[in-house]
Amino acid sequence: MAPSHTENAWADGLGIFAGAALLTVGIFQFLEGVAAAAKDDVFVTTPNYVFELDLTTWGWIHIVAGILVAVIGGSILMGKRWALVAGIVLAVLSALLNFVWLPFYPAWAVIIIAFDVAVVWALSTMLGRTRA
User: Which residues have CB under 8 Å from 51's CB, separation 6+?
Assistant: First the structure.
């Protein structure tokens, strides 16, 4: 039984959402990293935090993660099938990275985590539809 036009449109819409959201999250991560690497006093530091790293180090981690996430988002928008699984993996890693980043910029981290969860849902749904 072939998927209906509505099911195909739904799957395409999820793919576009996920790709655009990953591209957006990647750009946000990159900019967040640049802000942390360029000027350490932009963020509030929490004393005795378990994941204590220099903010410049955190900045570079966010810059690299942002580039990777944006590239995967662009690949999803270009229709690369391998990017669906890579997008799920990177969205989960991005959410974990931002969980660790919570003490430095809580509101921003929560927003990025919410985007990442939505991306995981969309890509998982799309991957499930393409396998069915």
Answer: 100
